[in-house]
Structures are given as structure tokens and as C-alpha cells.
């Protein structure tokens, strides 16, 4: 995944920003209606744009004056530290092990209202840390300190972490990639979320072809 600066320099930057603002507006109405303060972003498979989506939605929440924490919980393929151009790799695992406090594990980003908690150095047993009392307590503590807590989670099909994490979060935003994500994979991912009794609050479709006439690059539904 490219960096945030790369994204800012794309020719279609204004179009994408408007789309993310539209997604965030629709999403915030849903969150307020259900009283949701935190949600995770996931997909069926890798490389479907979930991290790009979570980072930019978090940015919009912050731009609108909300204190926002973005947590990278994908120990298997972390990418948000690079995307946000954060140098230190102190983060989630350091907080879970009790080595540092929640705020010590978060770092400032390009926006004053947005802080990032990277994964930190991945543990040998990430599944056990995701499915732990410490993880549940971290989420609850983060909700007390921030207006919104957004968690970038691993994809659902190859890794079990997100199935566990979905039960700890107030909501789940599901990301797919047009003409890439198979319908059968979406159905299987939805089954996993249903089994976990997860609250699916919406979906984002990435990778829709962009034309100069309509520039329809993202679609949100709920």
C-alpha cells in the first residue's frame, strides 16, 4: 500500500476525498443511530483495500473534529504504519502485554485529531492476544478516551483473528473489491460474521472503474 502522501498527490484526490466524506457521513448517521463508538474494517481476502479504506475513513472522522484512534490489528500483514509514515513500531502488542499505556502506544499522524496505534512487533501467537481479556479491555479504554475507535482487522477467510475481533467490536464495516472478490467468498465471510454475532453496519466497494464523466470510484451501502 502506498503512503498517505502518495494518495494526496494523485490526480483524482479531490474526487476520492469527496467519496470518503460521503461514506463517512452515511456511516456516522448509522453509528449515531445505534450508539456505536467503535467498529472494525475487514474484507474477505487480502488486497481488497480494507486498510486504505480504514485509514481514509478515520482521517475524515478526524477532519470533522472527532478525536479518532485508528488501530492496526492485522499482525499478519500490518500496513498502516507505512501508510501514515510513522517511524516508531510501538503499538498494539505493547499495550496488550502491559509494557506501555494506551496513549504511549499511539502516535500523532498528519491530522491533529487522529492518532494511530500500529501493531508493534508481531507476537508468535497473535490469535491468543486478539482473543484475550486484555484486548477487550483495550477497546473499552480506547472508547473512553476517543470519540471513535476504528480497527483495521485482518481478512476474514484466511485468518481467524477477525472472526474473534468482530464479537468485541460494536460494528463491522465490510470491504470488497469490484470484479475481484468472489460472491462465494462474500457469502462465506458473512457466515463467519453471523456465527460471531457481529453487527455488520455497511460495506464499501473498492476498485470500481473510474471514468472522466462520472468518476464513480467508491460505493457505500447500508
- Content of β-strand: 15-25%
How many structural domains in the coordinates?
1
Number of E-state strands: 8
Q: Name the overall outline.
A: globular
Helix fraction by DSSP (H/I, runs of at least 4):
25-40%
Strand order of the largest sheet: 3-4-2-5-1-6-7-8
In angstroms, what is the radius of gyration? 16 Å
InterPro entries: AAA_dom, Bact_polysacc_biosynth/exp, P-loop_NTPase, Wzc-like_C
Protein name: non-specific protein-tyrosine kinase
Pfam families: AAA_31 (PF13614)
Catalytic activity: L-tyrosyl-[protein] + ATP = O-phospho-L-tyrosyl-[protein] + ADP + H(+)
Topology:
Layout: H1 4-8, H2 13-34, E1 38-43, H3 50-63, E2 68-72, H4 80-83, H5 92-96, E3 107-108, E4 114-117, H6 126-130, H7 133-145, E5 148-152, H8 161-166, E6 172-177, H9 183-195, E7 200-206, E8 219-221
Parallel strand pairs: 1-5, 1-6, 2-4, 2-5, 6-7
Antiparallel strand pairs: 3-4, 7-8
Helix pairs in contact: 2-3
